[in-house]
Amino acid sequence: MSFYDLVKITISITITSFKRSINPPLKLFDVTLQQTNVDAGAGQIITSNYHSVISIPPNAFVDKDGKTFSGNVSVQYREFYNYVDFFLSGIPMNYDSGNADLQLESAGMFELTAFNGDETLFVNQSNKITVMMASLKNTPDYNLYYFDKQQNKWIYKGNSAVTLDDQGAQKFLNSPGQEDSVEKIFTYTPPTYCMRMSCMMEPAPKRKFLRFKRPATENFRFHLIGLQKSIPELNSLSRYTWDYTGSDARAVYRTLFGKNNNIQLLSCGLNDINIVHIDADDTYTFTLRDDGDNLNINFRPRLSSGSARKKFASRFEAYKEFRDQRRKKEAEAYRKFSDDTTKYFAENPHFVKRNQSMESYAMRQFAIDGFGIWNCDRPMKIPNATIVKAYFVDQDDNRINPVQVYLADKAFNTVYNYDSQSLNKFKFNPDASNLVWAIFPGEVCVVIKTKEFREKYSKSKWVCKFQVPLNKNAVLSEDELKKQLVFDI
Predict the structure, then answer these.
(1) Which pLDDT tens digit goes with each residue over 4-23?
(2) Closest by alpha carbon to 293, among 212, 396, 411?
(3) Alpha-carbon distance 222 to 243, whole Å?
(4) Contact, 404 vs 379, CB < 8 A?
(5) Which whole number is the average pLDDT over 21-46?
(6) What per-residue confidence (pLDDT) applies to 92?
(7) Beta strand 463-467 with 386-393: parallel, antiparallel or unpaired?
(8) HSE of 455, CA atoms in CB hemisphere, 13 A
(9) Angle at 309 between CA 305 and CA 315, to 5 degrees
(10) N or C: which end of the chain has fewer CB within 10 A?
């Protein structure tokens, strides 16, 4: 072997060893850390901003030599719950199963680390830390995974135990009959509501001839029906007819009522229904919330006289009072659930697995045997996937090269990311609600919204050319970015 070959091998090894497996795409934005100072000898219970609980027993930390550490410890914790969190953190969501590259759909993910000054600390394998993680899923088909930064991949943590040798290297040992990473799921079922509306007439363009008996309208109006099965406070507004006040009546009508002829909307499973008065133009905004997605529509009640307006104002105040009381009771129920599970968790350091089939909020509990990133996931493939060669051009049709490209499918809690090489196999489900965004040099972010993707790119075969307006001076703020990264109607 020549000296030149030896130098090439050395350089290759050096570059590989320093390759960052977790790389936030935007330097100024990341998921916020929650930091707590803990007395290692006494232990402590920490509650996160998302109501997760970290139970640290006394003497839970060891140093790099495996010796029990006593003294002040800085514990850092952060949680990731949706595709925006996964994107901003730079944590990869792909999973190598050995037979195929799969994607991890998350029910909740967190990162936990501990330091004494600049010194990294490790978990005491004889006295492990336990975590009760808040989750949006409680179905039994989510496994537990740990991200190994040395191997740059997710490690399945079913019936395995992790130990640390004196050098801090991680070894994975099978332990028959022992379940180190087991979970007990506590469930909380949030209330859901129905919204039923009956429309008086479908909006249509104005007709030029008078011989048509049915009057044409460019707007539509409706009233609320079946409120005994809906959200309680809407009963006070059941007598009124509402006129749509927007300019895109036909499009909104189709969104609400579709193309059926009975002209009724029945939307159940809603997390919340809210009506807000807009003082500027004396209209009201109906907000239908479903799993974090909001549909906002503006209406105005039909009121024939001053006395009718006065009576409506009184009824609307009663509606708001009833709504606030309902929300307060729901918040108290969730707070009791959180307090009860926290107490149980503190008093019971070992847990038995229990499967639940009901979709609801959950608290997933397990012991951790190493600091780092832990994830409750299930591996998946894109259903009905179309695979194309994707590339980007600007408004003048000039080829532009993104640093990273991301895709989120509304049906799954994950994010797919692509670099310049993997864009040759860009995958998406053409029948899904897809959201695509790309990062260009200079941390410029361009978003392709759901509607645009569906109309322009969902039918692509073999090759997909994304045309985006690239303004190199338009770097989004974090708030602007998060407002852009939502699924539209």
Answers:
(1) 443 343 333 333 333 447 88
(2) 411
(3) 7
(4) no
(5) 87
(6) 92
(7) parallel
(8) 7
(9) 145
(10) N
